[in-house]
Design goal:
alpha+beta; four-stranded mixed beta sheet; 16 helices; 18 strands; 15% strand
């Protein structure tokens, strides 16, 4: 693994490479439908109001549209002519009533200068343009099912395909280009600084929501006004809940705080988890678990490179967890038998990580949530990792009574668990450490620089 040496600001001075993405999508479609021609058609998300209110629903651009346009604006449309490689963006025309309240929208000239498209027209020209393109012989319009407005017609097209475009975009999104990597790195830089702000403020905080406020405020102050996902701010035993949502419990008397939080930058996500002692000093039990999880992450990252099996990396995490819990006496018996029995899933019930990009849980991983094997059931990537993909590495060890108690009642598993030793660890709750890794030909590049060395964590908290 190497550290990221990416000139983020220089790269982001350019345009989002929408046409390069469109060409990749066409290549994928032609790999499934040889000689495919016609047009790609996509709609962005429309502005809508909340029910029983004149306030807008918070806007989140459709990711497929973003991938082929780079346009994070509502009520827009795209036509990409496969034969001529010509892209046309359609934007809302000026509405005088809207201008009174919201100001002037983007003009066609501004849009053409800002985005990687060949032409910009008002959306009133959308249907006439579709009619013109569809009048050619044997043309196909490729669109996404249930994402075509009622007022849009494809009458002139001989063929309509509503299946392959979504699949093609999802698969192409796995491998990131330089611009996308810079966006993810930017989101990581901001998120890492926000995580540090939480470390610096934790000793003064009384409640989880104060720490959530510190994180959100730090991100907003650096220009990241949207989060990639709702923050998880879990203290004490609540850290054993993987997607804890309350973020409103008092911190007094708690040992650890698990903060899983990441900002979004131009629709691209960071996904970072850190776990740290609220007091500024790990207990013996929490330090022991933390060091096992850190070793799990370090050794799993060391395996990463182009072509590595993500399932094998995931199994390594379980092996290290088993060895660590054996050394503490929480587990007992033969390590291979413990793994074969899948007893370690009681302490690590989730997958090691997932693809990251336009979505936090990004596309193309092909999970199998009906897998009868509990170790693999929640593994979100079930393939070898290609160079250019970005994946989270987020091992954890959790002491969740709801999950573990049934294992203690099962003869298959209880023979491997020392309940008396286990009782010392319930208050640890859970430890997770998560970084975002770019896969390369010979290794990986860590895009995350949030502090995780346990001694450094203690120093920052104690010194604040």
């Amino acid at each position: 693994m190497s550290k990221a040496n990416i000139d983020v600001e220089a790269i982001l001075q350019g345009k989002y490479p929408a046409k390069a993405h469109a060409k990749r999508v066409v290549e994928y479609i032609r790999s499934k439908i040889p000689g495919a021609t016609g047009v790609l058609y996509l709609e962005g998300r429309a502005d809508k109001l909340l029910e029983d209110s004149d306030e807008p629903i918070p806007f989140r651009q459709r990711r497929a549209f973003m991938y082929l346009t780079g346009v994070n604006v509502a009520d827009c449309f795209l036509i990409y002519d496969i034969a001529t490689e010509h892209s046309t963006l359609f934007i809302p025309p000026i509405d005088p009533d809207s201008v009174i309240w919201s100001g002037l929208p983007l003009t066609p000239e501004e849009a053409l200068a800002k985005y990687d498209v060949d032409a910009v027209l008002p959306s009133t020209e959308l249907n006439p343009e579709l009619a013109r393109l569809g009048s050619s012989d044997n043309t196909t319009v490729f669109a996404i099912a249930d994402r075509v407005s009622d007022e849009v017609t494809f009458l002139e097209f001989n063929n309509k395909d509503f299946t392959i475009l979504s699949e093609a975009i999802d698969e192409c999104r796995v491998i990131k280009d330089e611009y996308e990597i810079a966006l993810i790195k930017k989101a990581n830089e901001i998120s890492g600084l926000a995580h540090k702000s939480v470390l610096e403020g934790v000793r003064k905080a009384k409640n989880e929501y104060q720490l959530e406020g510190i994180f959100l405020g730090a991100c907003t102050a650096m220009g990241a006004k949207k989060q990639a996902y709702p923050s998880i701010v879990a203290s004490g035993r609540a850290a054993a809940t993987l997607h804890y949502v309350h973020n409103d419990k008092e911190l007094v008397g708690k040992d650890l705080l698990l903060l899983d939080a990441g900002a979004e930058w131009d629709c691209y996500a960071a996904d970072i988890t850190r776990t740290f002692p609220i007091s500024g000093k790990f207990t013996d039990e929490s330090r022991a678990i933390y060091e096992i999880v850190l070793q799990m992450q370090t050794d799993c990252i060391a395996m990463l490179k182009e072509g590595v099996s993500w399932e094998e990396v995931h199994i390594l995490a379980h092996k290290i967890a088993i060895d660590g819990l054996l050394s503490l006496g929480v587990l007992k018996g033969d390590r291979n038998e413990i793994l074969a029995a899948r007893t370690s899933a009681a302490f690590l019930p989730h997958g090691l990580g997932h693809y990251l990009g336009l979505d936090t849980h990004d596309t193309g991983g092909h999970p199998n949530y009906s897998d009868p094997d509990p170790i693999f059931r929640y593994l979100r990537v079930r393939m070898n990792l290609p160079a250019g993909s970005v994946i989270t590495v987020e091992p954890g060890i959790y002491f969740c009574e709801f999950i573990i108690r049934p294992y203690l009642k099962s003869p298959k598993h209880s023979r491997f668990i020392d309940e008396k030793v286990l009782d010392k660890y319930w208050d640890v709750g859970g430890v997770r450490i998560e970084d975002n890794l770019l896969i390369t030909k010979d290794g990986s590049i860590n895009l995350t620089d949030a502090i995780k060395d346990p001694d450094d964590v203690e120093k920052i908290i104690s010194g604040s």
